[in-house]
Design a protein that fits this description.
729 residues; alpha+beta; eight-stranded parallel beta barrel; 38 strands; 20% helix
Length: 729
């Protein structure tokens, strides 16, 4: 069994293939953390130490025993008000205005299979692939109960955590902070690794030494955001790609969040992650329940590379769902950078016709096909076809594109509304606007109140009316601003602090209904590119537009950071026009293709405007992508260099799970006169096997390629690419 309970010692042990997570019910019913790391056997309750700590309080139950203090002990779910002055997972405001919650062990149950969370995304697994531990903690004074949920996926080295809060008392309470998971460590000296950024430069890795005090990242923007990603790690100071202890926490939530790392007075480390507590105040009436989003935990003793592959596997096969979870996705062309708002049916068909001749499999019609939408000042919320602009019904254009042998996709932004729209004139209260105040605009648009079912229903109905009438096989769902002016016209004064959480539930409800109604639809998430790139969104859309920045060189950094917590299969990546529209940089068609191939492949330009030589390269790129697709999307991904550190080249590799083949990718970032030779060491090969480069003479042993490496051919210009396919000889 993956989950074991030692009744005598009251110790819970959660075992995966390579890891152990252990906790115990300590004195007076407190749930204490013992260990998370390399797999071990036996009870580790002997690790707990007790001492009289100055100014650290003691539970009243302890009597004269001053050595037992929640301010010094490691905990599973720390709360405010029990004598622990470190950051808490749960803060409750009681009906009398006090802030106090004292949770003690009540009961537990172990069940086969993986728990689910009502209205929220969660890792899923067959009954024989997972086990669940539920530990019920209770406050006997207020009746508050917290059910701590642990899902163990043994073969994947993954443990999930979530919590359900129930008000079992007779009075209303308010949840002021709920973090989904806590990892307490008996020692310090860990590095805190997180992924910061901005629009157009998302998920840049930052590694800092933990310090005494509290370090935090997060989002107050209503989405998981471009600025910080809800995936973070803590690691030993010496941890590298291939060595050292490292721990990951991935929050399956697409709204405002907070992650914290605290080094306490005794050099113990606490790590928490969950919903952002700013602008969060969730009222809980008697017998009502609140569900916190899930956190995916994983540990590796062999560095960041193995930890990343743990996340890649769980997200690919136990988060993503639907037809395209493991099915090859069509190579698409999106018209946005080719036309922006300036198009009609003839221009779109011309792009599709040329793309079809080159082997592109899908045309995606981006922003501007609906309402009065010739710029970004109007039309959002009016989800009906602009037949004047399109030269007739959308169905006619789709049928012509289908006749070319191509699929058709479409762009929508369901959570937004323009003030200049029929919807806003009819339902101004559907938008987030604080009474008596003028709203903050973002991209000249407002945000619809998706915490209200009638708003979700209204938008869903409009969009389905379009989708039901044409053969749409792909939807790109965008969200192009941060949320301000949070006020729900129907929530009442006491419920405004719950609106942002309920908004996210509304978005998930919309996506779940969309997936259920159109089960064969490929859905791609987007929020100005990578502003909502998280495991929660991947439960509804198996790929997300990685960034609005399509520059091949900047994508090296963006895709490098993304790879730590997310698989290549989740990354939307396209070849775009040059000079690049975001940076003005020019790179070769080959380089753009190699970089874009580290994702779900496509094009973001007018193929009528490229040279005949480049058109032939497009044909070859599409053939190569089909050839390598299974290895790219289902194989093992390896970061061979860090482009921010290495400086001269960026290198990454895809290797088949059986080590029978590998695809090496190198891009030159910087060149020098009389340059030194660059060597790249491959990974994921079988040391005893012999390999050759497809189409070339010569053989290489697996152990030589991994230990000595291979020289990168000299490339005289910046931004050149070298892609080679190693196959077993």
């Amino acid at each position: 069994m993956a989950i074991r309970y030692n009744e005598e010692k009251q110790v819970f042990s959660l075992h995966t293939k390579n890891t152990t997570y252990q906790m115990c019910v300590g004195k007076y019913g407190f749930l204490l953390h013992l260990y998370y790391g390399k797999r071990t056997e036996g009870s580790m309750d002997y690790l707990l130490t007790y001492a009289d700590r100055g100014f650290s309080g003691n539970p009243y139950d302890a009597g004269t025993d001053r050595t037992f203090s929640m301010d010094a002990l490691l905990q599973e779910f720390p709360t405010q008000g029990n004598g622990d002055f470190r950051t808490a997972c749960l803060v409750v405001k009681n009906s009398d205005g006090t802030y106090s919650c004292d949770l003690r062990y009540k009961e537990h149950r172990i069940v086969q299979g993986k728990y689910a969370i009502p209205a929220l995304p969660a890792v899923y697994a067959d009954e024989n692939e997972a086990e669940t531990l539920e530990i019920v903690m209770a406050d006997v004074v207020t009746g508050i109960e917290a059910t701590l949920c642990y899902g163990v996926l043994e073969e994947l080295d993954v443990i999930t955590r979530s919590v359900k809060i129930v008000n079992g008392g007779k009075n209303d309470v308010s949840l002021e902070k709920v973090q989904s998971a806590c990892l307490d460590f008996m020692d310090g000296g860990y590095d805190f690794i997180h992924f910061h950024g901005r629009h157009g430069m998302e998920r840049v890795m930052q590694r800092t030494k933990s310090m005494h005090g509290l370090q935090s990242i997060g989002s107050r923007r209503g989405t998981s955001s471009h600025q910080h990603n809800p995936f973070m790690m803590v690691a030993a100071e010496a941890a590298t790609e291939e060595t050292g202890d490292c721990y990951g926490l991935s929050l399956m939530y697409s709204g405002s969040f907070k992650g914290e790392v605290e080094l306490d007075q005794y050099n113990q480390t606490r790590v928490t992650i969950g919903i952002q507590d700013e602008m969060f105040s969730y009222p809980l009436a008697p017998q009502e329940a609140f569900y916190a989003p899930e956190v995916i935990l994983s540990y590796s003793e062999a560095g960041f590379g193995r930890l990343s592959r743990n996340y890649h596997n769980v997200i690919r096969y136990h988060v993503c769902r639907g037809k395209y979870k493991d099915q090859q996705r069509p190579v698409l062309i999106n018209n946005w950078e080719a036309t922006y708002f300036d198009f009609n049916d003839e221009k779109i068909y011309s792009i599709a016709e040329q793309a079809s001749e080159l082997g592109v499999e899908m045309l995606v019609l981006d922003d501007g096909w609906f309402g009065k939408r010739d710029n970004d000042y109007s039309g959002l919320g009016d989800w009906f076809v602009n037949e004047k602009k399109m030269g007739g019904e959308l169905k006619g254009l789709v049928e012509k594109i289908n006749a070319l042998g191509m699929k058709f996709g479409i762009w929508i932004e369901p959570e937004m509304v323009s003030e200049d729209s029929e919807l806003y004139r009819k339902h101004p209260d559907w938008a987030f606007v604080i009474p008596g105040r003028r709203p903050v605009r973002g991209r000249s648009q407002l945000v619809l109140d998706f915490s209200r079912k009638e708003v979700v229903d209204g938008i869903f109905g409009q969009i389905c009316e379009v989708l039901d009438g044409v053969n749409v096989e792909y939807i790109k769902i965008d969200m192009n601003r941060s949320i301000t002016d949070v006020y729900s016209a129907t929530a009442g004064d006491k419920n405004q602090g719950a609106v942002l959480y309920r908004y996210v539930l509304g978005v998930y409800d919309f996506l779940e209904r969309l997936a259920a109604r159109y089960p064969d639809m490929l859905i791609e998430g987007c929020s100005g590119g990578g502003g909502r790139f998280d495991a929660g969104m991947l439960y509804y859309s198996p790929q997300i537009w990685c960034s609005d920045n399509t520059d091949a060189i900047e994508r090296l950094y963006i895709q490098h950071g993304t790879s730590f917590g997310y698989p290549v299969s989740s990354v939307g990546s396209h070849v775009s026009a040059v000079p690049n529209h975001q940076t003005g940089r020019s790179t070769s068609m080959k380089t753009r293709g190699v970089v874009a191939m580290a994702g779900s492949f496509g094009y973001e330009l007018d193929l009528n405007k490229i040279s005949e030589e480049e058109k032939q390269m497009v044909r070859e790129q599409i053939k190569e992508y089909h050839k390598y697709w299974n290895m790219i999307h289902n194989g093992n991904y390896y970061r061979l260099t860090d482009p921010a550190v290495h400086g001269e080249i960026a290198a990454w590799e895809f290797a088949a799970a059986d080590a029978g083949e590998a695809l090496l990718n190198v891009v030159t970032i910087d060149t020098h006169c009389n340059a030194s030779v660059q060597y790249v060491k491959l990974k994921g090969l079988a040391p005893e096997k012999v390999y050759r480069i497809e189409g070339e003479e010569g053989i290489y042993s697996g152990d030589a390629l991994m230990n000595a490496g291979i020289p990168v051919p000299y490339m005289s210009d910046e931004y050149q690419a070298w892609q080679v396919h190693f196959i077993e000889a």
